[in-house]
Specification:
The complex is a heterotetramer, with two copies of chain A (216 residues) and two copies of chain B (227 residues).
Chain A: H1 6-19, H2 24-37, H3 43-56, H4 59-71, H5 73-81, H6 83-88, E1 100-104, E2 109-114, H7 123-126, H8 131-134, H9 136-142, H10 146-152, E3 162-167, E4 173-177, H11 189-193, H12 198-202
Parallel strand pairs in A: 1-4, 2-3
Helix pairs in contact in A: 4-5
Chain B: H1 33-44, H2 52-60, H3 64-69, H4 72-86, H5 92-97, H6 117-125, E1 132-133, E2 146-149, E3 168-179, H7 181-184, E4 191-200, H8 201-204, E5 214-220, E6 224-226
Antiparallel strand pairs in B: 1-3, 2-3, 2-6, 3-4, 4-5
The chains are: A mainly alpha (216), B alpha+beta (227).
């Protein structure tokens, strides 16, 4: 049974540091081998999960949610009030989105999401997080210098726009609802979804543009 | 724990890799195959009794240089090893040798059946865990209340980052009662009211450029006092 | 700077190497020859205008993984490279190529004459630098005064560690006015009264075993307010 | 001239990380080569400093100070009141001891010295610091758990003894004056000095013993 023994685990990490292979691929291979030998895991199921998160579950789900919210005011209202129920309508409720919150960008507000303590992320609607989201550079700076971080991503935020940073310290997860790009009244949900960048749903992108426009 | 993981506001970590390719645009989700394997392992491994908070604490306990220098999913694998050892599923000898030393299956059942991609997609939807519960205690604070966060942490797992300690904020939202991570990391399930608390950046960093930008944190009731 | 160097009270750094041999008992001072070379270099290099605080700040600016994983005197060498580049003595190209690109001696004089060991011992005694000065301002605090330390640091060099911020202590001793490091690291020489301040460990770490043990820090006047 | 440009130096460190050889010996060799080629340093002087800190300057100076303080009450009084002047009598004043303080252990007080922010050390009387003194494990724990640190060094401190930790945050430097071992009335200064361990002058050792006694 689990001992919850932090002192022991710290020592175990020292042993692992010395005895595990240094190469990450070999480490993970060793983990898989042991789990399979112990009958704790079926390797085909690992394949299935990889395929699921490569082909089905990913930021296109998030983009669909955003586009639908742009097109359907009732859905948007449900989304902002109770995001888990709203995304469940699309069968997108899942891993790490049981307490999802949707935060809306406006002309006067920009939202940015981070997890300073680990790298919490709304997996079932955005898939695997980008490496920068999990790196110390982003995690350390997003809460202290969000405008500097945004500038590094090429996003200039004027002084009259309020920046709101959301540090995911609990089991709540955040999806930024970016502003609908101008001049897109004629587009349908699918076309709109194709304009939604992953970064815009984290908050490191702001001004979305129509496909035929060149972003300056 | 005042550990290396608590990086919010820490300085010196340099530039962000803003040029990283959005892999999903190329039809991929992972930079390396081993990352994909680790992700899959983490999704389908059966680890009874482990709480997410205990797993997070085990990751925080990785030595600082390893925590900072090893790739992200590599630290997941190391955390898995550590929790399986702590849970009695693996021995350190088995990990070092790379093979199981016994036929002892810790489960009585037969090894799990293979899943298809469709099974995985359905299983993912069943992982929409909720951490809230109805408790008898009424929330102490209400929206708009001024609160001050605790000055100190403790040696165990906690979710009040160092940068937001002893800071004055306002209750932005009530989120019901959620599993309290500090005790959950010790295997004890209790619930406390969870608040979204908003801080002006000027309160957190006096030398910040835009003092009226906001930082929101989700904080449990015992992290807060009325101010 | 809330940098990686500020390790006081941080957790997860593991065991101390208490079995390290006392080298001096074996007639040596250094574990490796290159450590000895770096020490010698640091003793006799001529680096006008560099202040100790600027040099320390340059060491703090080393990337966290390097700071934690490279040997101590190796980080001295890297800091030397950085300060020589910042000071215009080396170019980055020269450092990368390993050789001087020009005959330009930044000094007008001829290269320094060799020193003997006896010269070095005498020179060391001349390095008993003092950092104090008489200033017009009287000290604000006197022995026994209760003070509270600043809640915040800043992005530059400072010598108020994170663990002792916003903590109540007592003035233990006055040490005259000393060069203020926060400005000295920017090349500006000013002096402030320097106090030895005593804190009960219970004030610093509420979960400590012996709350009445003491921690003493030497802190400049602008780090402190009356309490 | 020195620019005091922190942003530039942080970038320089990134370049150095990429371009300097990884091996420490090669890095230091590269530094020495450039300094010599620039005429900023004479390599023979490097040798001289190494010899000085190996043969002349080191913890035997500190031990001499301690032994003299045990034998000579007037010297001890001067040492505690104005340590730089007192050690100057022995020609030991030098690098990093211009603002030396001597802190005395008693039956009811134990002192421990650390530098949490870098690794300040009273070079001219203790020589080169041990590696553990400069390592994060010691620096992080000495101020938070001094009794745990002492126990790791084999030093048990009873609850009625007050532990005082001195964090060298300024240019003051600290030398612990350990208690004289019992039963040493007959010993002279040199014999006494041989009983003084380096760790006892930092505070990670407490009970000194006569040479013929076996330490338990």
């Amino acid at each position: 049974m689990v001992e919850f023994n932090a002192k022991k685990v710290a020592e175990v990490h020292q042993h692992l540091h010395s005895h595990l292979p240094s190469d990450s691929a070999l480490r993970v291979k060793a983990l898989e081998t042991l789990l399979v030998e112990k009958g704790l895991i079926n390797p085909e199921s690992i394949d299935a999960w990889i395929e699921a998160y490569t082909e089905d579950i990913g930021p296109k789900r998030g983009a669909h949610i955003v586009a639908k919210a742009w097109c359907d005011p009732d859905f948007k209202q449900r989304l902002v009030q109770d995001a888990p129920s709203a995304i469940d309508e699309l069968d997108y409720l899942g891993n790490a989105t049981g307490h999802l919150k949707v935060i809306e960008n406006t002309a006067s507000v920009h939202n940015l999401v981070v997890c300073t303590l680990c790298s919490c992320y709304p997996f079932s609607i955005l898939g695997i997080a980008p490496a920068w989201y999990k790196a110390e550079a982003y995690r350390s700076r997003a809460v202290r210098d969000p405008r500097g971080v945004l500038a590094e991503f090429g996003v200039q935020i004027s002084d009259d726009i309020e920046v709101r940073v959301w540090d995911s310290t609990a089991e709540l997860r955040y999806l930024v609802l970016p502003q609908r790009p101008s001049d897109t009244e004629a587009l349908g949900e699918d076309e709109l979804a194709s304009l939604v960048t992953r970064n815009s749903m984290i908050g490191t992108d702001r001004e979305l543009v129509k496909k035929d426009e060149v972003k300056v | 724990m005042d550990g290396i993981h608590d990086v919010g506001g820490k300085q010196g970590y340099g530039a962000i890799d803003v040029d990283e390719v959005d892999l999903y645009k190329t039809g991929k989700a992972f930079h390396h195959d081993w990352e994909a394997r680790e992700w899959g392992i983490s999704r389908c491994a059966r680890t009874p009794d482990i709480t997410i908070d205990w797993w997070r604490h085990c990751r925080e306990l990785i030595a600082p240089v390893d925590y900072l220098s090893r790739p992200y999913f590599d630290t997941w694998a190391q955390t898995d090893f550590a929790t399986y050892i702590d849970g009695g599923f693996f021995t350190l000898d088995e990990v070092c040798s790379g093979h199981s030393n016994s036929d002892n299956n810790p489960f009585d059942e037969v090894p799990p059946k293979p899943m298809s991609k469709a099974d995985a997609v359905i299983a993912d939807s069943q992982k929409a865990f909720r951490f809230d519960a109805v408790i008898n205690d009424q929330p102490i604070f209400t929206i708009g209340d001024r609160v001050i966060t605790n000055k100190h942490g403790h040696s165990g797992h906690t979710r009040l980052p160092q940068y937001a300690r002893n800071c004055i904020g306002k209750i932005h939202a009530l989120n019901g009662a959620h599993v309290f991570p500090d005790l959950s990391a010790q295997g004890k399930q209790t619930h406390q009211h969870l608040y979204s608390v908003v801080f002006e950046t000027g309160e957190l960093w006096p030398d910040t450029a835009n003092k009226h930008d906001k930082v929101f944190l989700d904080l449990w009731e015992s992290y807060l006092c009325a101010k």
